Amino acid sequence: MAMRQTPLTCSGHTRPVVDLAFSGITPYGYFLISACKDGKPMLRQGDTGDWIGTFLGHKGAVWGATLNTDATKAATAAADFTAKVWDAVSGDEVLTLAHKHIVKSVSFTQDSNCLLTGGNDKVLRIYDLSKPEAAPLEIPGHTSAIKKALWCNGDQQILSAAEDKTIRLWDRTSMEAVKTLSFDTSVSSMEYVADGEILVITYGKTIAFYNALSLDLIKTVEAPASINSASLHPEKDFFVAGGDDFKLYKYDYSTKEELESYKGHFGPVHCVRFSPDGELYASGSEDGTLRLWQTAVGKTYGLWKCVLPEDLGAENSEQLYTTAPEIKA
């Protein structure tokens, strides 16, 4: 009997979920933040999906959200022309950073002292969070809206993806573009894996892996549908992707073989990310839900409970393990 993947469903949002991010592993486990067009980013326990709290204060769709490594700070990017920094423990708003247009992306440095933003005004901004009254450093250069901007190379460089069909690598000190990648179509997502300096990007039906420092291509994989997001397992064994056909795909990273695919959402998948321990991955969708999926189906982990075949009765022999079917937020 094949193991059946049973995702945990995290409800609570009322509009499409467009971005999500995990914290690092802390003494209290790890955490998950979701950005949603309902304007109410949510914080959850990462391994169970249990709702912890909602950050209230934005007056428009939230397009980007992130946590710092130890999950003490959160940052959000929104359509109300602001980025906000939050105390992730108390839920209090710490800072509002006014912009000239919709903000799409936020990223903390490893020491949590600086915040990088990008959005529809085509300018990258670096805010020193210890001097909130100081003007940010501004890096112009993109010719269309910035979709994602991330620190890389020990926070010495910045990667940005924009609707001008380019990905650019910037030097933090000189604030100049060091390298540029150009594509035939707009890049739909970008993930940076610090361990190994790997850049995971998606465009059209393609999932591509690049060296984040040289921007040299490592490999590409073609999926059956348009892909909106992909994520590489921390140990680089697998990667997962989701897109317009409502499905999630899991591939072997070294052989590029498709290992699994299944439909779990009732709308296009907008974002997918592996947890920091690699035991699960989370997906966010147009259907307004987050779902958590096991990397190794059948393990006892989080809310999943392993059930051995000999423990099963005749009436439920189709299912090899049980789980709470839904988590109500």
Describe the protein's architecture and organization.
It is a single chain. This protein is mainly β and 329 residues long. The chain has one domain: 7 Propeller (Methylamine Dehydrogenase, Chain H), CATH 2.130.10. The protein is 0% helix and 50% strand. The chain contains no helices and 31 strands. Strand 19 and strand 20 form a beta hairpin.
Looking at this protein, list some descriptive labels.
four-stranded antiparallel β-sheet, single chain, mainly beta, globular, 329 residues, disordered C terminus, Methylamine Dehydrogenase, Chain H, five-stranded mixed β-sheet
Short synopsis of the structure:
The protein is mainly beta. It is built from no helices and 31 strands.
* Portion in beta strands: over 45%
Q: Any low-confidence stretches, pLDDT <50, length ≥5?
A: 312-329
CATH superfamily assignment?
YVTN repeat-like/Quinoprotein amine dehydrogenase
Q: Summarize the main sheet.
A: 5 strands, mixed
CATH top level?
A: Mainly Beta
What radius of gyration results from the CA coordinates? 19 Å
CATH architecture: 7 Propeller
**Distance between the first and last residues' Cα:** 33 Å
Oligomerization: single chain
- Range of helix content: under 10%
| DSSP strand count | 31
Number of helices: 0
According to CATH, the fold-level topology is: Methylamine Dehydrogenase, Chain H
| Broad shape | globular
Family: Belongs to the WD repeat STRAP family.
Organism: Myripristis murdjan (pinecone soldierfish)
GO molecular function, one term: RNA binding
WD repeats: 55-96, 96-137, 139-180, 262-294
